[in-house]
Amino acid sequence: MPYEFKTVRQVEFYETDMAGIVHYANFFRYMETAEHAFFRSLGFSIAARQAAPAVGWPRVHAECDYVQPLRFEDEVEIHLLVAQKKSKSLSYLFRFRKLNATPPVEVALGKLIVVCVTHDRHGKMSAAPIPKAIAERIQVAPADLLP
Amino acid sequence: MPYEFKTVRQVEFYETDMAGIVHYANFFRYMETAEHAFFRSLGFSIAARQAAPAVGWPRVHAECDYVQPLRFEDEVEIHLLVAQKKSKSLSYLFRFRKLNATPPVEVALGKLIVVCVTHDRHGKMSAAPIPKAIAERIQVAPADLLP
Amino acid sequence: MPYEFKTVRQVEFYETDMAGIVHYANFFRYMETAEHAFFRSLGFSIAARQAAPAVGWPRVHAECDYVQPLRFEDEVEIHLLVAQKKSKSLSYLFRFRKLNATPPVEVALGKLIVVCVTHDRHGKMSAAPIPKAIAERIQVAPADLLP
Amino acid sequence: MPYEFKTVRQVEFYETDMAGIVHYANFFRYMETAEHAFFRSLGFSIAARQAAPAVGWPRVHAECDYVQPLRFEDEVEIHLLVAQKKSKSLSYLFRFRKLNATPPVEVALGKLIVVCVTHDRHGKMSAAPIPKAIAERIQVAPADLLP
Q1: Looking at the partner chain, which of D12, D13, D32 has a beta carbon nearest the beta carbon of B13?
Q2: Which positions of chain D have pLDDT values less than 70?
Q3: Which among B23, C22, C94, D38 could disulfide-bond with C70, CB atoms 3.0 to 4.6 Å apart, if both were Cys?
Q4: How is D61-114 classified by DSSP, letter by letter?
């Protein structure tokens, strides 16, 4: 459905730190991975420079609540949910679940707010309406799916 | 003063992404850098395994608001402020200022909540009171410094 | 076969830099990913702390030749080949192929030399013979597969 | 002197991995840091887009020999030496020394070969002579400084 996307990845050694767990900043990389795969699932690329006009999606807000650590070789499901859709921005939630636990357990909860921007020919960004082709394909998740 | 710390770093090439700006996840690395340098400024190390008992500082919450992008070779000041001190946790704010702008401009605002933990001999973490020697050295910043 | 392993990954946005291509240091992360998946394919984990004695695999040499850049969303195959097996070390080659090219094209060639080590109870590492169970499972690739 | 450059950095927590040491791929980031600071010491920026024509410096080869691990809060000196200067490429050596050891100890030895390129208006790279202003400023290190 165009309001959610799930992807699974296995924790890499280089994503851990000396505490033996996934470094907290990497959860934001995981969110991005899910966001971009969500876009691909809709038939778009987050970096579609060939679009006219090309749009970008800088973040204006990012956050994460950490409940349990992730470790090397853990399998983590990142479940993206569209929480809000405005004319120029999108808000996503991300539920991180460790799948190699019995039962699987939610280990973190993330949030991103991204703004649709265009660049003028000097590279200056300004907020712009989400292109219609994209906006039409994205829905807000049903309230009961949102935490 | 034991309620704040400032550090300056220059944006590295490898911290940028194909959008030509510092990747948003790296702001969380910058926060950590300031947090650890703050600890060193107090005479501690965040990874003081020699302490008895050794404590760790996992994050339970992290967030960042992004106002302006940072680019390669920008000089960024990270200003840590202690926003809250509880028996088992600390809350920090981080003001990111781009110094090579006239005048310097605030480009992002971050927040971390960290919990003091000890590990039992099986490696299991549990929240613990902040060791007295550390707690005594840390103050909460005056309200007028907090955004 | 226990002398090679192939894995495919898609280039992430956060792996690119402001030149619009995968940052060169990330090829070493890709090598590690293939190395660890190779170990799992043999029934081991690179971080098997439960082994007696536990062994680690620090790198003593790493190198990479770069032929063509990789970009966001490229599909890259990492083909690990065991180039040499000594009593205490392994040497791997890595052929990087961009699959979303017609025909697929080799974009880089990597090499890692890793040493089997044990840690004494103070954490000090020393080289050690590769455990028999592991050494028996690993073969050197036929010469005609090695570049 | 325009054939060498030294920079010192302190190992960050996020640069370590679960083995408790600096992840091996990060040494290539450290090399880059020294390379770019070397350029700045000559009055250039590695990313000088304002040059006419703008040049880039992709790597064609990178390697590192690891002798001893680096750990959190270690102070590491990265000593860049120009090993070779050709019309279209430069070769650098990097000596990594851990300063907080008595006496300081060499922990790694790196090498980079970078090629000077220009981009045509479609973004395609091709090797190009090093701009005279840059080439004139860079010398090859005396043989007795090279390992």
Answers
A1: D32
A2: 1, 48-53
A3: C22
A4: EEEEEE-S---TT-EEEEEEEEEEE-SSEEEEEEEEEESSSSS-EEEEEEEEEE
Q: What is the pLDDT of residues C7-25, one digit of tens each?
A: 999 999 999 999 999 999 9
Q: Scanning the structure block, which residue is given the tokens 């690891």?
A: D66
Query: In D, residues 1-60, which contact C (CB 8 Å cutoff)?
Result: 18-21, 24-26, 28-29, 32, 47, 56, 58-60
Put simply, the answer to whether C72 touches B18 (Cβ < 8 Å) is: yes
- Please write the tens of the pLDDT for every residue from A2-16: 999 999 999 999 999
Compute φ and ψ for A125, nearest 5 degrees.
-90, 145
Integer Cα distance of C81 and C91 in angstroms: 9
What's the per-residue H, E or C state across A18-62? Answer: CCCCECCCHHHHHHHHHHHHHHHHCCCCCCCCCCCCCCECCEEEE
Return the H-helix or E-strand segment holding C5: strand C4-10
Mutation target to probe the D interface, by most D beta carbons within 10 A, among B7, B14, B50 is: B14
What is the per-residue pLDDT for C44? 85
**How is residue D126 written in tokens?**
């091709």
Residues of chain D contacting A122 with CB distance shorter than 8 Å: none
Using an 8 Å CB-CB cutoff, list chain B residues near A59.
24, 66
Backbone angles phi, psi at C43, to 5 degrees: 95, 10
Cβ neighbours of A46 in C, within 8 Å: 13
CB B92 within 8 A of CB B46: no
Q: What does the pLDDT look like over A73-112, one tens digit per residue?
A: 999 999 999 999 999 999 999 999 999 999 999 999 999 9
Could you tell me what percent of chain C has a pLDDT over 70? 95
